[in-house]
Design goal:
The complex is a heterodimer. Chain A is mostly helical. Chain A has helices at 28-39, 41-56, 60-84, 91-99, 101-137, 141-145, 150-170, 176-203, 225-239, 258-285, 303-312, 316-347, 366-386, 390-416, 425-452, 469-491, 493-496, and strands at residues 7-9, 463-464, 467-468. By secondary structure, chain B is of the alpha/beta class. Chain B is 36% helix and 21% strand. Chain B has a ten-stranded mixed β-sheet, with helices on both faces. In chain B, helix 3 (88-98) crosses helix 4, helix 5 (160-174) packs across helix 6 and helix 7 crosses helix 8. The chains are: A mainly alpha, B alpha/beta. At the A-B interface, strand 1, helix 1, helix 8 and helix 12 of A face strand 2, helix 2 and strand 3 of B.
Chain lengths: 501, 290
């Protein structure tokens, strides 16, 4: 007998798309569910609503609407890049191809930093609602106060991060059924919250009943460009994840129509739910800075933790459940993206090849997943120790970080497709105009927010050495990226000489 | 004849390759190394959307398989396959059925410190559902020389005769000595009466099977019957002498679906103490001749 050692790619793989997903497995509703679950509206609202109100007051609905525009513009460019160069490195790979290794490296760093920050925030929100839920289950409010004890809070958050890391490392997947239930439950509970809030307003039992006025929808009424920029940065975060529906192709049942329709329906669902919740919250609680007011600094970190009880009464536990489950699911799936980006960067030798290691047993990025967990844990511990209101500041820093790497990615799209940009109206719009506008808007927001956040009064009012904590967190992370990049240049110059990508 | 090896790029996978090579030695058989990589679920909500991860994973899988193939000696034909699936066990079963494999070979575990076999979750699912025989390599199995003796775990329960058929035929095909092993767990220590009864029962069944399958090759020695006793099944297994090149054939539990494996509680305990590979044969399994 003769040996013919040859690796045979077996036949079944042909029914899989390029992405390793089963072709034709997702219908319209499925795609919408995926989109909504990526956005995780219950979590994003509780995390971002307060900080946004503190910036733009009653103009919250206007900012939520306006924030979608740059998101849409960038997502269109994102889709073009994804179609032309599908790659695990996404922003990292695309920016490297368009602008060379230095900017590409920073794009990748921005993406990783953003997902690491959101991981630590997700874990913290989950911990808050975990204790709140315990308090609700045992009708013992003192249990909810446990999350305010710093060492206990940090310890619990680290446990949550470690658990999510372990699950993600093991490669356990959320199934279709679970995802449908989670999404339906989130939307249902958010709807319930809105209806209850309006009922309180109608019955005169609201905390600070405020009449809805058309002015709330006017973005130009926001008092300063600073507030406007901060608000838009934050609202980028609430739509973050929406573009996943746009990039779905082969896995949908009708690749021609499903992704576009799903993106449209997802955005309608999300905008409706955001508007309803924004209006309900403002009419119920007002924007006052005392008590339940949405502008109260005490309420910024997690608005539903404060409002769900007064609004929904005994059913507030459903809100805790919805947020806890959605943030736990997001926590686990969010681990995948920094891990895979680091894996791609390790694979292309932009960072240590250790990051490119794949677990032989679970076939998941092993080193990179653990590195992401350690980074998220470290980020949380540092922020929590320095800041009185860590969640608020991490969310603001996160908004900045998303603007940074989305901006770079959008401009990468413009530059990459510059040769084809003027070949017809479609190419001009999708490959040039939309990403250019989106990218410029986001980078302007980024620069403006960064400059404003140097003020020690910015965000929660925490500061380090007289400089606002948000600036330190946001720019600190980016500068750290520059330093690491320079070290990597010394250690592995091949990538930076453009020999790899 | 083909053996499908459930390959992973770790000690467990290497054990499986070694056992599979050993199994092909006195047989005209080839190996198919199957590496399963998980299928992404769009409902896993991975953000941001990305695609090329699978290219990297595929590349890695190819390298892993090349390492696996390098373990196979030059005189054994081996092919390698990458399969995608949600469940590693189910994907291996599908591959084995599709390739019409004579057995699915896997490693037990690389985690057990004291016990020779600790079953991983994949092995466990295979042992409880596979329609083809599952061969389990103990941890650290290095041997690639031919199998020297076939043992067959034998009891009084339903399905024992079918298993005996398979054992007798396998031994004959491979020209291997056959040993019937009856394990007795007795709380009160040795019981000569029970042991004798077990021996007689085994001899009876063997005679019946021998006459029905007729032509027992003249070059094959007469099957040996041993009864091992101990306070526990584990102890009984320990008391038996096992050759290095031995392999134990064992039947599925009565709980098994028709034509499927289901590792029973006794088999599970045997597994924990066994120093040699074992093959779990599905219920109502009929061998197709080589």
């Amino acid at each position: 007998m003769s040996t013919a050692p040859k690796t045979v790619q077996s036949k079944e793989t042909s029914s899989l798309s390029e992405k390793g997903l089963k072709a034709g497995s997702v219908g319209l509703i499925g795609a919408v569910v995926i989109g909504v679950s990526c956005i995780a509206p219950a979590y994003t609202l509780t995390a971002a609503l307060g900080p946004t109100v503190s910036e733009v007051g009653v103009h919250l609905p206007a900012i939520f609407l306006v924030g979608f525009i740059p998101m849409l513009l960038v997502a269109l460019g994102y889709r073009e890049l994804n179609n032309a160069m599908p790659d695990a490195g996404t922003s990292f790979t695309w920016a490297t191809r368009a602008f060379g290794p230095w900017i590409g490296w920073m794009g990748g760093w921005g993406l990783i930093a953003a997902t690491i920050i959101v991981l630590s925030n997700l874990a913290a929100v989950a911990v808050d609602f975990f204790y709140l839920m315990l308090a609700q289950i045992f009708s013992n409010p003192s249990l909810g106060e446990l999350s305010k004890i710093l060492p206990l809070n940090i310890a619990t958050t680290l446990v949550f991060i470690a658990l999510a890391c372990w699950i993600s490392y093991r490669g356990m997947e959320t199934t279709k059924g679970v995802q449908y239930v989670l999404v339906a439950f989130q939307l249902l509970v958010l709807g319930w919250f809105a209806v209850s809030a309006f009922a309180h307003v109608a019955n005169g039992t609201a905390f600070d009943a405020t009449a809805i006025s058309p002015d709330w929808f006017n973005p130009f009424a926001v008092d300063s460009f600073s507030s406007f920029a901060a608000g838009v940065s934050l609202s980028i975060f609430i739509y973050w994840g929406w573009d996943v529906t746009l990039t779905m192709n082969e896995e949908t049942k009708n690749p021609e129509k499903t992704p576009g329709r799903a993106a449209t329906i997802t955005v309608l669902v999300i905008v409706i739910i955001y508007m309803t919740i924004a209006l309900a919250t403002l009419s119920f609680a007002g924007v006052g800075e005392t008590g339940l007011g949405a502008g109260n600094p005490e309420n910024q970190s997690s608005i539903f933790a404060v409002l769900a009880g007064p609004v929904m009464g005994p059913f507030a536990i459903l809100m805790s459940l919805a947020i806890l489950s959605s943030s736990a699911a997001s926590l686990q799936s969010t681990f995948v993206s920094p891990a895979r980006t680091m894996l791609a960067m390790g694979h292309y030798r932009a960072i240590s090849p250790k990051f490119g290691k794949i677990s032989p047993t679970y076939k998941s990025p092993s080193f990179a997943t653990i590195a992401a967990a350690i980074a998220a844990a470290a980020f949380y511990v540092i922020t929590r120790t320095v800041s009185e209101n860590a969640l608020w500041d991490t969310i603001t820093a996160l908004g900045m970080m998303i603007c940074f790497y989305y901006g770079i990615t959008a401009l990468a799209c413009v530059w990459f497709f510059r040769a084809e940009a003027f070949r017809g109206a479609r190419a001009f719009f999708f490959k040039f105009l939309a990403p250019l506008l989106g990218g410029v808007i986001l980078l302007v927001m980024f620069v403006k927010t960064a400059m404003d956040s140097m003020d020690p009064e910015y965000g929660s009012g925490s500061s380090v050495g007289g400089i606002g904590l948000v600036f330190v967190l946001g720019m600190g992370v980016i500068l750290l990226g520059v330093v690491v990049m320079l070290v990597m240049y010394r250690l592995r110059p091949e990538f930076f000489k453009g020999k790899v990508l | 004849m083909r053996y499908v090896v459930g390959y992973t790029a770790n000690a467990r996978g290497h054990d499986a390759v070694h056992l599979a090579v050993a199994l092909t030695r006195n047989h005209d058989a080839s190996l198919d190394l199957v590496l399963v990589i998980p299928e992404d679920s769009p409902f896993n909500a991975v953000y941001p959307p990305e695609a090329g991860y699978n290219d990297i994973l595929n590349e890695q899988a190819q390298r892993w398989l090349d390492e696996g193939l390098a373990l196979v000696p030059a005189d054994v034909t081996a092919r390698a396959h990458i399969r995608r699936g949600d469940s590693e066990a189910q994907t291996l079963i599908d591959a084995a059925v599709e390739m019409d494999a004579a057995a699915l070979v896997i490693g037990a575990s690389n985690a057990g410190l004291l016990k020779r076999f600790t079953i991983g979750s994949v092995a466990s699912s295979l042992l409880h559902s596979s329609p083809v025989p599952v061969a389990l390599a103990p941890h650290g199995y290095q041997r690639t020389d031919p199998i020297t003796r076939l043992s067959c775990g034998f009891g009084t329960r339903a399905g024992a005769d079918e298993l005996l058929d398979v054992a007798v035929e396998s031994a004959r095909d491979r020209g291997l000595p056959l040993r019937l092993v009856s394990l007795l767990a007795l709380d009160g220590g040795n019981s000569p009466g029970l042991a004798d009864a077990a021996w007689v029962h085994a001899a009876d069944r063997l005679a019946a099977v021998g006459s029905s399958t007729e032509a027992s090759g003249a070059d094959v020695p007469e099957p040996e019957i041993v009864v091992a006793q101990g306070r526990t099944i584990e102890e009984a297994v320990d008391r038996l002498d096992w050759e290095d090149g031995e392999i134990l054939l064992i039947g599925s539990s009565r709980l098994a679906q028709h034509r499927a494996t289901f590792l029973g509680s006794t088999a599970n305990r045997i597994l924990r103490a066994l120093p040699v590979p074992m093959i779990v044969v599905p219920r109502d399994y009929t061998r197709h001749s080589a």
